[in-house]
Amino acid sequence: xxxxxxxxxxxxxxxxxxxxxxxxxxxxxxxxxxxxxxxxxxxxxxxxxxxxxxxxxxxxxxxxxxxxxxxxxxxxxxxxxxxxxxxxxxxxxxxxxxxxxxxxxxxxxxxxxxxxxxxxxxxxxxxxxxxxxxxxxxxxxxxxxxxxxxxxxxxxxxxxxxxxxxxxxxxxxxxxxxxxxxxxxxxxxxxxxxxxxxxxxxxxxxxxxxxxxxxxxxxxxxxxxxxxxxxxxxxxxxxxxxxxxxxxxxxxxxx
Amino acid sequence: xxxxxxxxxxxxxxxxxxxxxxxxxxxxxxxxxxxxxxxxxxxxxxxxxxxxxxxxxxxxxxxxxxxxxxxxxxxxxxxxxxxxxxxxxxxxxxxxxxxxxxxxxxxxxxxxxxxxxxxxxxxxxxxxxxxxxxxxxxxxxxxxxxxxxxxxxxxxxxxxxxxxxxxxxxxxxxxxxxxxxxxxxxxxxxxxxxxxxxxxxxxxxxxxxxxxxxxxxxxxxxxxxxxxxxxxxxxxxxxxxxxxxxxxxxxxxxxxxxxxxxxxxxxxxxxxxxxxxxxxxxxxxxxxxxxxxxxxxxxxxxxxxxxxxxxxxxxxxxxxxxxxxxxxxxxxxxxxxxxxxxxxxxxxxxxxxxxx
Amino acid sequence: xxxxxxxxxxxxxxxxxxxxxxxxxxxxxxxxxxxxxxxxxxxxxxxxxxxxxxxxxxxxxxxxxxxxxxxxxxxxxxxxxxxxxxxxxxxxxxxxxxxxxxxxxxxxxxxxxxxxxxxxxxxxxxxxxxxxxxxxxxxxxxxxxxxxxxxxxxxxxxxxxxxxxxxxxxxxxxxxxxxxxxxxxxxxxxxxxxxxxxxxxxxxxxxxxxxxxxxxxxxxxxxxxxxxxxxxxxxxxxxxxxxxxxxxxxxxxxxxxxxxxxxxxxxxxxxxxxxxxxxxxxxxxxxxxxxxxxxxxxxxxxxxxxxxxxxxxxxxxxxxxxxxxxxxxxxxxxxxxxxxxxxxxxxxxxxxxxxxxxxxxxxxxxxxxxxxxxxxxxxxxxxxxxxxxxxxxxxxxxxxxxxxxxxxxxxxxxxxxxxxxxxxxxxxxxxxxxxxxxxxxxxxxxxxxxxxxxxxxxxxxxxxxxxxxxxxxxxxxxxxxxxxxxxxxxxxxxxxxxxxxxxxxxxxxxxxxxxxxxxxxxxxxxxxxxxxxxxxxxxxxxxxxxxxxxxxxx
Amino acid sequence: xxxxxxxxxxxxxxxxxxxxxxxxxxxxxxxxxxxxxxxxxxxxxxxxxxxxxxxxxxxxxxxxxxxxxxxxxxxxxxxxxxxxxxxxxxxxxxxxxxxxxxxxx
Lengths: 255, 356, 554, 105
Prior knowledge:
The structure holds 4 protein chains of 4 kinds. By secondary structure, chain A is mostly helical. Chain A has one domain: Cytochrome c oxidase, subunit III, four-helix bundle (Four Helix Bundle (Hemerythrin (Met), subunit A), Up-down Bundle). Chain A is 72% helix and 0% strand. Chain A has helices at residues 2-10, 34-69, 71-79, 83-108, 112-142, 154-157, 163-167, 175-179, 181-214, 224-248. Residues 1-21 of chain A have low confidence and may be disordered. Chain B is α+β, with helices and mostly antiparallel strands. Chain B has 2 domains: 23-61 and 76-223, Cupredoxins -  blue copper proteins (Immunoglobulin-like), CATH 2.60.40.420; 228-348, Cytochrome c-like domain (Cytochrome Bc1 Complex, Chain D, domain 2). Helix content of chain B is 36%, strand content 17%. In chain B, a hairpin with a 5-residue loop joins strand 11 (263-265) and strand 12. In chain B, helix 2 packs antiparallel against helix 3 (77-106). Chain B is elongated, with a radius of gyration of 28 Å. Chains in contact: A-B, A-C, A-D, B-C, B-D, C-D. Chains B and C meet through helix 1, helix 2, helix 3, strand 7 and strand 9 of B and helix 3, helix 6, helix 10, helix 11 and helix 12 of C.
C-alpha cells in the first residue's frame, strides 16, 4: 500500500502536486490537502461518537423504564452507593477532561512539553478514576450487591443492619420491591461497567499517545489524532456526567 | 416409472382433494378481517397491474428499435404529487380500517365468557371456569363471545386460530387477552406462531366449536368435580391468604369481596381498575399495588404459585361476592390435608402449590 | 433483443490495461493488507459469495425438510438450528453487507471522483471484522449451532435454550461493528471527498441511497450491540433486565432489538434501490425521472425508518396508543418506496430501452419489490397484521423484499459493473437465461408462501398439517429452480474472468464518472482529478464527449 | 509562523486556555451544586434539577471542550442528529410504556 502511495504522488500529471510546494508527510495519498484530511477525520470521529451515544441509549432507555417501575428499589439501591467517592470521581473525571482540553491546546500551539504534561496528567487522573471505581466495586462485592452472584437483599429488608442504609434513613422495603434492587444493580454495573470499559480503552490509547507525543508527533501541525482522542475522552466524561446523578443522586434527601 | 407414478398419483389426489387456498371463516370477526384483506389485495393488484402495464407498454413503445433516441425529461411535479398522494390516501384508509379491526379483536365485550390459557413449552393448557382442563385443545360454543386470558409460563408463545383470524402473544409475566365469537361448528387449527424452542411445531391443537347444546354436554362430560374458583379457594386457604384478607375489622389486608372490576384507590395516590392483570400483579408484586390504608407487608408469591395457581386464585377472587365465602374458607383451613393435591382428582390439582 | 447499447472495443486489438488496481501489486499479502477500496470490495465480494452459498445451502435444507408434513429429514432441533443459521448468515453476513460493502465500496469513490474512501484502514478493518464475525458464526454452526431464531427472542435465548447463543451473539456483535465502520466511511467520504463540481444534486442516486443506508447503519447498529451485550449478561450472570421472573420486561428486548432490526431492512434494501436507479437510467438512455424525488425518498426512508419498529410487536401487547402511532408511521414509510417505483417506471417513458441482463434483473426487482412492498402494507395495517403476522405470509413478504428486491438488485449491479470491475464482459445470452430462471424460480418458491400464510401456516415449523403440503411442494420445486438461477452466474462469471470479451472503458455508454476511466480502474482511480461540469445522467454530455474524442483523435 | 497562521485560517479556531479554565471551574461548581441539590427536598423537581444540571454540564463540555461552538455547521448537524435519534429511541419506547396504563379502549 505504501508503495502505491508513493507512486501515486510521484505521478507527474498529479494535478495538485504542483499546487503546494510539498506535502506534509502525514497527508494520506487520497486526500487533496491537509484540511480535507483533518475535516474528514474529525467528522468520522463525530459519527463514531454518534454510535456511542446510541450504544448507551439502549442502557438509558432500560434505566428510565425500570426507574419508573421500581422507584423505591432504585432509591434504596442508590443509597448504597458512596456519594463521597462518586463526587470525587466526577471531579477527577472533569479535571481529566480539562487537562485533555489543555493538551489539545498545547498540540495546536505546538508546545511539546506542555502536551506531554497534559497527557500524563490525564492518564493519571483516568487511572485515579478507575482506582476509585475499583474501591466502589469492591464494596459492592463484599456486600453481595452484584447481581447473579449470591445477591443479598439484607441491606434492603433490614436497613438498620446496614451502615449505608441506616445513614440514609431507609425504611425496610417490601420483599418484592427489595428483589427489584437487583435490577437497579444490574443497570448500575452494566452502565458503569460499559463506561469503565471506555475509560480503559481511552487510557490505553493515552499511553500510546504519551509515547508518541514525547517524540514530537503531535506538535508539528498534525493535531488530528490528539483532537479526535480529545473528543472521545470528553464524550466519556459526558456519559459520566449523566450517570452520576442518575445512579448516585436519587432522592438523597431525608425521608 | 412404476415406482414414480404412485408418488405422482398421490400428489394429484392430494392436489384435487385437499388443497385449500383460503382459510375457513368461522368467527364473526373473520368476514370483517377478510373485507380489509380483500381490499388490500385489490389495491395491490391494481397497483401491480398499473406498474406492469406501464412497464410493458413503455418497453414495447420505447424499445431501442422503435425509439432510437431517448427524449430527456426532468420529471413532473404533478405526477410526483399524484403518486405521493394517491398511495398515501389508500395507505391511510388501510391504517384507519386496520386500527378499527385491531381494537375490535383486542377489546372483549363485557359479557364474554372468560377462558384462561397458559402456554408452556410445548403445550397449551386451557382452564375453563367450570374447572374443565384441556391440553392442546379448546372446546367452545358457537354464538357466544369467548374471551381468552393468555399467559405464558416460560417463553413467548403465540395463540393463533387462523379460521377465526385472531392471534395473540402469550407473554411471560403478563396477561394478554383476545376474544372471538365462533359461528360455524367444526374443528379448526390452533397454532403456536411465536418460535418457542425445540418442539415449537408440535405446539398445535384443535379448536373444537360445538353447538350450544353440544358444549353443555361436553362441559358435563369433562367436569373435574371442582371449578376453577374452588381450586382457587383451596389455594387461598393453603397459602394462608385468609390470615390477612379475612374481612375482619382488624385485618391486615383489604377485604377481597367485590373487589374485581372495582376502582381502587392506591396508597401511592391514583386509582386503578382491579382487573385480572391487577389481581395477578398484586399476588406476585404486591408492594406496587397497595390499596389505601394498608401497609406493604404482603410477601411476594413469585415462584411459589404457578401460573395455573394464580389463575385459579384470580378466578376465585373474581367470584367473591361476599365475605361469607372467605369466612367459610377460614373455617375449613384446618380441615385441609397437607399437600392438598391428594384430595382432588389428579387432573384438577392446582400445580403451583408448593409451600403454604 | 437484437438491439443493444453495448459497444465493445475491437476484440482483435483490445487489451486489458496493463496497469490497473488488480495488476498493481501481486501476492496474497498485497491483497490482505491493501487500503484500496476496490481491492477490499473484491475481498468482500468473495467472502460474501461464500456466505451466500452457505446460507443458500441451509435454505435448501429447509425447503427439503418442508417437502413433507412430518419432520422426517431432520429432527426438529436440527431444523430449528438450520433456519436460525440461515437467517443469521443471510441477514448479517450477506444482505447487510452485500451491495454496500461490494458495489458501494468499489463505486462510491469512483462515482464522486475521489481516489479512495476517506478512511482506507478502517475500511480494511471492517472487512477483517466481517471475516472474524463470519468465522465465528461458522464455528458456532460447526460446534452445535444455535436455535433461537435470528431474532434471539428473550427469555428463550437467555434462559431456555442450551445452544451457542453467546458465540453467535458475539459473531453478530462483531459483524455489526464491521457494518458501522462501512457506513461511517461512506458518510465521511460522501461529505468530504466529492470532486470539484460534484454537488449533492449531481451525485448519482446510487450514492444517495448508500448515504441514506449508512445513516441507518451508524445510528441503528449500536443499539443492537448493546442489546446483545445485555442478552449475554442476562445469560451468563442473570442480571434480570429482560427476565420477567426478576422484574425485567422481555418486551423491552423487543423494543431495543427491533429499533435496529427494522431499520436493518432499509439498510438492506436502500443500496439495492441505488443500483436500480443506475441501471434503469443507463438502459433507457435517460435521466432518472424526478431525480430529486428519488434522492429525497431515500433520505425519507432513512428518517422514517427509525420510527416504525414497533410494528413487529403489534400482537405482543404494546399499548393501543403506540399501535396507532407506529401503524401510521409505517404507512408513511411505505410512500417513498411507491414514489421510487413510479419514478423508475416513468424513467422508461420516451426512453430508448434495451434489454441486457442488468435490465432484466431490474425488471425482476421492480415487479417483486412492488409485491413485497405492497404486502408490507398488509402487515402495517394493524388489523390484518393480527391474522398474517408470524405466518408464512411474513416469510414470503420479506423474501420478496430481500431476495426478490435486494438480491435481484445485487445481481443487476454485479452484472452491470462486472466489466468495470474485471475489464471483461460476462456472456450475455446465458446470463439473460439466468435472469429469467431466477425470476421464475423465485415466484414459484415464494408466491405459494403468501397463500400458505393466509391459510395460517406458522413460520419456523418443522412439521405442518398435511393440507399445506401441495403448496409447500411447489415452493420446494421453485427453490430448486432458484438454486440453478443462482449457480449459473457463479459459473459463467468465473468463466468470463479469463474468456470474457474485453469490455473497454464504457461498454454500456453510461454517464457515471466510474465509466469514464479505464476498466479495471487504476489504483488511484483517476489519473487527473475529474471536474464534474454537468448534471449526472446527462447523455447529451456523453454524446458531446464522444464527438470531441473522435475529432481530437482524428 | 506562516505555517501556523495558515493552519489557523484553514483549520479552526483555537480556543484560549482561559475559556478552558472557566469551563472546567464551572463544571466542578455545578458538580457541587447537583450534589447539594439532591439533599434538598424538592419533590418531583429533584430529578428535574439533577438532569437539568447534567444537561448544562454536558452542553458546556460539548460546546467548549469539544469545540462545537467553533465548528462547522456539519458538526453541529451531526450532534443534533445523534440527539434526535437518541431521543427517538427513548421517547418512542417510553411512549409505549407510559400509555399502557391508558388501558384498553
